[in-house]
Amino acid sequence: MPWKLTPLLLFLAWMAYKCNARARTDLFNVCMDAKHHKIKPGPEDKLHDQCIPWKKNACCSAKVSQELHRDTSSLYNFNWDHCGKMEPACKRHFIQDNCLYECSPNLGPWIQEVNQSWRKERFLNVPLCKEDCQSWWEDCRTSYTCKTNWQKGWNWTSGSNKCPTGTTCGTFEFYFPTPAALCEGLWSHSYKLSNYSRGSGRCIQMWFDPAQGNPNEEVARFYALAMSAGAMPQGIRPLLLCLALILPLWLHD
């Protein structure tokens, strides 16, 4: 009888939900598969300076956090001063950006697979709080660069990044006329300028006071759950196909 199917239907629906929820819950606390990231996040009591906010739960090691603060780090041999000395206030934002990239375990909802020699994953369109983007742009507008996309196109023949032939050094404000141009274009859309403010629970903060806790945990949870809800119909489709195949056999018996 059809009513006998009720326990089976409920069980299969529950299993589909749990499998989907499990996959999304993993996004709350995860490290990217990239060059210097740890396999799993965990405590790091000796993180350096701007990376300290992540010491309770980090994807970076203390050694990596120290290297991130060097003008030309051995991690990637990237030189911030490719067009002359970068202003200290500007460089502070780039160090915080690097700490977020290397140390944060709360970027799971935006992790994407990539086919690159130095990493298998990256994050894409992370909603960066509007104040963080605005202050980054304000503090860097008088520093100098020669490119709008720093992720590719450099001259690496010397071992570190140099301006490619045909480019000229100009102010950040020239190459990035708006905060969105800087935050979204700099690293090939790793970030997306959010309309939300710090503390809203809807945007990622590049830096925070560790004494107040990590606000990005709530943000990652919100977006992971939103993704889970949006993905539910896709997860149910295989279940319905399975039921369609099983139902005739069950009724026949």
From TrEMBL:
Pfam families: Folate_rec (PF03024). Residues 30-205 form the Folate receptor-like domain. It comes from Eschrichtius robustus. GO terms for molecular function: signaling receptor activity. This is Folate receptor-like domain-containing protein. One of its GO terms (cellular component) is external side of plasma membrane. One of its GO terms (biological process) is fusion of sperm to egg plasma membrane involved in single fertilization. It comes from the Eukaryota. Keywords: Disulfide bond, Signal. The keyword Transcription regulation does not apply.
